[in-house]
Amino acid sequence: MNPISQHRRILTASLTGTAVEFYDFYVFATATALVFGELFFPQSSPSVQGIAKFMVFGLAFLARPIGAIAFGHFGDRVGRKATLVASLLLMGGSTLLIAFLPGYADVGMIAPVLLCVLRFGQGFGLGGEWGGAALLAVENAPRGWESRFGAAPQLGAPLGFLAANGLFLLLGLWLSDADFLRWGWRVPFLASALLVGIGLWVRLNIGETQAFRAAMEKSPPPAVPLVSLLRGHGFAVLAGSAGVVACFALFYLSTAFALDIGTKKLGYTREEFLTLQLGANLFLALGIGVAAWCADRFGAGKVIAAGALATVGVGLTFSAGLAGGTAALFLTLSAALLVMGFVYGPLGGWLPTLYPVRVRYSGVSVAFNAGGILGGAVTPLAARAMSDAGHGGSIGLLLVGAGMLTLLGVILAKPAS
Question: What are the domain boundaries of the chain?
């Protein structure tokens, strides 16, 4: 196969997998904001339902590091390709099964328990997805193109977001509220099967990465990659985890949390808010593309650091922007997702530099998903609690903290020798 065709196939495989990942994850996030509280929890106070549904949402972020350890182990010992196929199957299977779950009114407490089990399975599979997709692209990249190749998995985020939000928007326009609540919300979860099938077909037709093959020819893989990682590169894991917090915080505050608040407290209809988010999503794609080009030119760490400082700026205006009317809301969401592109787009080129090839799958996956706990699980849960307690005007401070933590991680991180 000529190099151009090979690179095209590798980039397609990286992009497709993470598009499915973000589709699956954001389908759940959107359903969490719109229907899961009412469907899967007792009809108590709305605030209790709100906290409960975001706790289930956050469960996947606790599962992701566990999945990162498991898939990282096999990714560093068996190879990137086989591990990516397994993670996609688990992730897609869990998402598909959510479509068939009964509600609380049908089976009582069994309903939220089953939702938690499948959410955990979704997060477990996702734990091995991003790291493998990033390595598939970066370890096959031409010299000087690492960040641009590494941005292929990142561009899966706006594509998956567009597909998930767009499908929910169409369903909202076509169906009555009663039909949407009764069965319409299940359609996006069913549609995941088609996307997973496409992702599997692409991934089964690629080979192993050059860097992994070279490392295996040089010496056998470590018996337990996680032990080798923590023993020799523990500080790099901490720095890498801090470096990804801002991208998760920006995304989930601007999407799942904002959608929940916008439709429950700010008076927007579901369709109005989803339309605004779809428009803002274009700025995420723009930010990723510009940031990846800048990262290859000036250095991935420098671009992420600049994005971290911009995250602080977004945080200072975030709360006022959400409550400032339609124009201010759209500008706030667009600015947040544009800045997310700068802290997210270069990650595929930055994180792999922190770990040697022999433990790189484990290192990248653990760092990415550990940072996701704080940025993607704790942050929206804390924001919802602050809002319910009457402190909605201070929610932006969560982004200020996330930006400072990411800046610290980038400053302290050192490339692997």
Answer: 3-412
Q: What is the pLDDT of residue 3?
A: 55
- In the structure, what pLDDT confidence band is assigned to residue 204 with cuts at 50, 70 and 90? confident
Alpha carbons 89 and 96: distance in angstroms, whole number: 10
Residues in the chain: 417
**CA–CA distance, 298 with 148 (Å, rounded to integer):** 12
Q: What amino acid is encoded at 1 in this protein?
A: M
Q: Where are the beta strands (DSSP E) in 228-334?
A: none
Counting residues of the chain whose pLDDT is more than 90, the rounded percentage is: 39
Domain 3-412 grouped into CATH 1.20.1250.20 = yes
Residue 210, number of CB atoms within 10 A of its CB: 11
Report the 10 Å Cβ neighbour count for 173.
11
Close Cβ partners of 223 (under 8 Å, ≥ 6 residues apart): none
The two tokens of residue 382 are 């804390």
**What single letter denotes the amino acid at residue 62?**
L
| Those residues with Cβ within 8 angstroms of residue 15's Cβ, 6 or more apart along the chain or in another chain | 152, 153, 155, 156, 159
Q: Is the pLDDT of residue 250 over 80?
A: yes
Instruction: Quote the DSSP letter at residue 389.
Output: T
Phi-psi region of 220 (alpha: psi -120 to 50; beta: other; left: phi over 0): beta
Rg (CA), the chain: 20
382 contacts 255 by C-beta, under 8 angstroms:
no
CB proximity list for 22: less than 8 A, separation 6 or greater: 156, 157, 158, 159, 160, 161, 164
pLDDT averaged over every residue in the chain: 87
pLDDT value of position 102: 92
Among residues 242, 266, 268, 105, which one has the least CA distance to residue 172? 268
Q: Could you give the dihedral angle defined by the CA atoms of residues 5, 291, 404 and 226, in that order, rounded to the nearest 10 degrees?
A: 10
The yes-or-no verdict on residue 5 having pLDDT over 70 is: no
Tokens of 225: 């990659």
If you search the block for the tokens 């991680």, which residue do you land on? 409
Q: Which residue has the tokens 């996307």?
A: 195
H or E stretch at 296 = helix 270-298
- Per the listing, tokens 């700068």 go with 342
- Residue 21 burial class via C-beta count within 10 angstroms: exposed 0-12, middle 13-18, buried 19 and up: buried
pLDDT at 313 over 80: yes
Band of residue 30 on the pLDDT scale cut at 50, 70, 90: confident
Token pair, residue 123, equals 């997060």
